[in-house]
Amino acid sequence: MGLARDAARGSKRGDRPMNEMTGRGGAAQRQREVDVLVVGMGFAGMYVLHCLRQRGLTGRAFEAGSDVGGTWYWNRYPGCRVDVDSVQYSYNFSDMLTRDWQWTERFASQPELLRYANHVADRFDLRRDAKFDTRVVSAEFDGGTNLWTLRTDKGDVASAPYCVMATGSLSTPYRPPFPGIEDFRGEWHHTGAWPHEEVRFGGKRVGVVGTGSTGIQAIPVIAAEAAHLTVFQRTPQYTTPARNRPMAPGEQRAFNVRRAQWHDEVRDTFTAMTGFPAPTRTVRDDTPEERRAYFEKRWEEGGMPQAMLTTYENINIDREANAAVADFVRDKIREIVKDPEVAERLCPPEDLPIGSKRPPIDTDYYETYNRDNVSLVDLGCTPIERVTAGGIKTADGEHGLDVIVFATGFDAMTGSLLAIDIRTSDGASLKDAWSDGPDTYLGLMVAGLPNLFMINGPGSPSVKTNMIIAIEQHADWIMDLIGHLAARGLNRVEATERAQAAWVAHACEVADATLMPVADSWYVGANVPGKKRVYMPYFGGFGRYRGICDEIAADGYRGFVLSRAGAAEATAGVAAE
Ligand code: NA7
Fold first, then answer.
1. Which of 474, 471, 413, 443 has its CA nearest to residue 43?
2. Which ligand 1 atom lies nearest to the CA of residue 191?
3. Burial of 282 (0-12, 13-18, 19+ CB in 10 A)
4. Strand 228-233 and strand 136-142: pairing?
């Protein structure tokens, strides 16, 4: 391909704003700097940059953090770890990378995941095309020049025909606006924006607000260090044992020997993960005693969240099957937690299907409530009224605290995209396009916003899968599409309204046939007041989704309009193959 290599050579400019002389305005003056702009240098952005180079394209990335890693850069809270087997939560694109890297635990901890991200960035020299400590604030597409122009909080202005949003699904922390936070005399932190310096809990009274996946990971670790831990729980969660352990000698080598075969297999699975046998029976096939014995076995084995949710068929759909697992977990809580009152407070309500909120896995979560230094506040009975100078005041009084940890989650899936002012010169904007919910075609593109791609956008399986596999599938598909355009002398792609509407309808139909939309979860945006309630991930399964994406590509990118547009200069780089 004939590429804008001269422009690319000028892209390494240290901390100076990129193309600062061009300034704002005069979109017609804009020139392409690279082929593709990338927002974010988490696992998705890193892979996109690598793909671009592999295909002879030039890329430029901006990242708000000081280094690579995304989720694993920001979430440094105690106990943070991945809940997919580490060997599966690894890139698959390079045999050398696979051979170079050895995980130490079944479920890697955040520091190890961040080391892995850094290793990949070093190994493939990815930082060369990225600017850090730089937040993209706007993205504007000019239909005349066929260029996206990004502007950053550091004054950078950069243009390219294509833009990939690798902004992450859970990267905009949400902290409820509890009144009085400014009065608090102690220190407080959100788990999703954790300080780089060690936060010490020894001898302190600590409060954790939130008992989602994050709170459930942090609570046992903080409890072991703090003088006292008060957990503020709004909705009890179902969590099951991770049974994390060191990797056995030779375990990773054995996995790697069959990685290629595994990769073929995993791409056809529902979750893009393996390691739990597919269910072959319904709950009605077994007696209550047989079920119990089977649940016990799977509970003892532990593992990824799907381990308990694949014990029987249709747990995500069939209320009776779901209730069987949920009842078992409630029984486990009552068995583990010694104080019966505390145990009841920890039991999720019967109208909350297991798996409808993101299912966590844990290490000694319920056991932690047997410690003398841990107390549980049920916000359902006694809601938080305000933060005070000395702690948190709930309806039943003040809880004295030195440190507050907000494990209150994220403005998931759409928050980071809507935080950027994304618009076109003819007046379309992402904000308007999503005013009634995050409509997309395949979770990859939005009608009205040409040449703008999302990695793991709403409407794709994303957060319901192994994110690395989903990232690789999206990035590869986007690269193929850009190559397809270039090979035909084209440079513009846009999803049609019709295809998008059909995809949204299909995704809704799939989700509505399950118990998934029932819960007030971040999957439906219910954790952020005012957010439109829509089940955002595609719940048709990764294998099926991948098949649909491939079919659409094979059918000449059905549902997309492919065209040639813009000034010759803006198109030359990608037009000539
Ligand atoms: P989650 O799963 O959204 O959990 C947030 C927790 O914070 C949850 O227990 C919420 O209770 C609680 N919360 C949220 N707002 C409030 C207010 N206003 N008052 C009291 N409690 C509140 O976020 P996580 O960080 O744990 O996990 C996010 C994902 O990251 C996770 O699913 C993995 O995919 C990785 P609620 O249940 O809403 O009643």
1. 471
2. 25
3. middle
4. unpaired
Task: Name the strand (E) or helix (H) holding 157.
Answer: strand 157-160
DSSP 284: G
Q: Determine if ligand 1 sits within 6 Å of the CB of residue 239.
A: no
Residue whose Cα lies nearest atom 2 of ligand 1: it is 212
pTM of the model: 0.94
157 forms beta bridges with: 151
Alpha helices in 374-512 (DSSP H): 415-418, 430-433, 467-487, 497-512
SS (H, E, C) 346-363: HCCCCCCCCCCCCCCEEC
Quick check: CB of 234 below 6 Å from ligand 1? yes
176 lines ligand 1 (CB under 6 A): yes
pLDDT one-digit tens code per residue, 524-572:
999 999 999 999 999 999 999 999 999 999 999 999 999 999 754 444 3
Termini Cα distance of the chain: 4
For the chain, give the longest Cα–Cα distance. 74
- Whether residue 97 is predicted with pLDDT greater than 80 in this model: the reply is yes
Confirm or reject: Cβ of 382 under 6 Å from ligand 1: no
CA of 185 to the centre of ligand 1 (A): 24
Mutation to probe ligand 1, out of 352, 365, 408 (largest number of atoms < 8 A from CB): 408
